[in-house]
Amino acid sequence: MPIIAPLDEFDAEEADTYKRLSRREAQALREAHPAVSPWWVVIGQIGLGLFVALVAWWFWGGGVALSVVCGVLAAVIPAALFARGLTSQFAAANPGAAVVSFFVWEFVKILVTISVLFAAHRLVKDLSWPAMLVGLVLSLKVYWLVLAFKRRPSSV
């Protein structure tokens, strides 16, 4: 017995449940579920990064705090480039190119993250890899926090 059912086994009734939204219905759907700006993620990463760096400086000193900052920069710089790329006028004007733009900027994010990590390894004397990775991981987890605290639609 195949795991995936062939297409001819689906009900015609199920195909009729999908309909194209009118302009008004699409607008109502957008208002009910507002989009989260990628810039809020970048701002959240910077804020959390500063907080974690201050905590690291308070408890372990400047060397560990600098390592945390390097980890935060390895997340913030690529995220800012990604946000800039996705919110550019080119991506907004060409919806078909938006998918390609997403993958290109995601690739740029990966390259810049790796570059920042290698640069930190070369430039920072007495780099604490665990502290840098803590800064990187905590900054990357900001995506979930921004989604959890995204703005709610206003009630009319």
Kindly list the characteristics that best describe this protein.
mainly alpha, elongated, 156 residues, 74% helix, 8 helices
Task: Give the SSE order as H and E letters.
Answer: HHHHHHHH
Shape annotation: elongated
Q: Which parts are unreliable, with pLDDT below 50 for 5 consecutive residues or more?
A: none
Question: What do the pLDDT scores average to?
Answer: 83
Helix content: over 70%
Radius of gyration: 22 Å
Query: Percent of residues in beta strands?
Result: under 5%
Task: Let me know the number of strands.
Answer: 0
Span of the ends, CA to CA:
52 Å
Number of alpha- plus pi-helical segments: 8
**Biggest beta sheet attributes:** none
Spell out the blueprint of helices and strands.
Elements: H1 12-15, H2 23-32, H3 38-60, H4 62-86, H5 89-93, H6 95-123, H7 129-140, H8 142-148
Helix pairs in contact: 3-4, 3-7, 3-8, 4-6, 4-7
Short summary:
With 156 residues, this protein is mainly α.
Structural overview:
By secondary structure, the protein is an all-alpha fold. Helices cover 74% and strands 0% of the residues. The chain contains eight helices and no strands. It has helices at residues 12-15, 23-32, 38-60, 62-86, 89-93, 95-123, 129-140, 142-148. It is elongated, with a radius of gyration of 22 Å. The protein starts with 11 loop residues before the first helix and ends in an 8-residue tail after the last helix. The relative contact order is 0.15. The model has no long low-confidence stretch (mean pLDDT 83).
